[in-house]
Write a structure and sequence with these properties.
mainly beta; four-stranded parallel β-sheet; 1 helix; 14 strands; globular
Amino acid sequence: MRRSPPAAPVGGLRHDTVANNVLEDQGSWGILTSDNADPEQPPPGTHCQGGIWNYPLHGFCLFRARGNQIFSNVSSHVGFFGNPTNSDLATETLGSYTPRNCFYRNTDRGGPLTSAPASIESANVDGQPCGQPGNGNDRALVDQLVCTTGFIRCPLPPNVASYPKQTRIVMLPLSQQVSMPKPCTGVPRNAFCP
């Protein structure tokens, strides 16, 4: 297993695998799959490739998260901010996509696995079989995701949310990597392999 950075958001990705990670000391969600609404104007000629322009929000390119498989991850001390939906695993999409974001064989070292929606690994929510339609929209999770952005004020009691604001980013140096022997062997000519 490899250790992942705190929180592993899977926003707007399709058919990716998130497996064999150790998720530690994350106050909100350990792994979160969600649609990604990008407000940036696409560069000329791209036309929101891979997404849906102006759907459902005016001026946004929507990248739908679907078909991702999240399995065999281990959580430890996740979801401790204590806000509604803070949990080991979470998924939020604007629609019930097929295939769904699929969660299975994930564990929490400190007790039962927590999720939003609840019982995320069950077949009638977002567990196996993975080819079924997804769970879709969870209003409580939408509210919490909006609160984390800081763009709007969080709801008043009893749904007050507390998310600490990041004050700095520390970039750790990468460890020295062994170079690939003959990386251009069998590769068509390109800028890196003349």
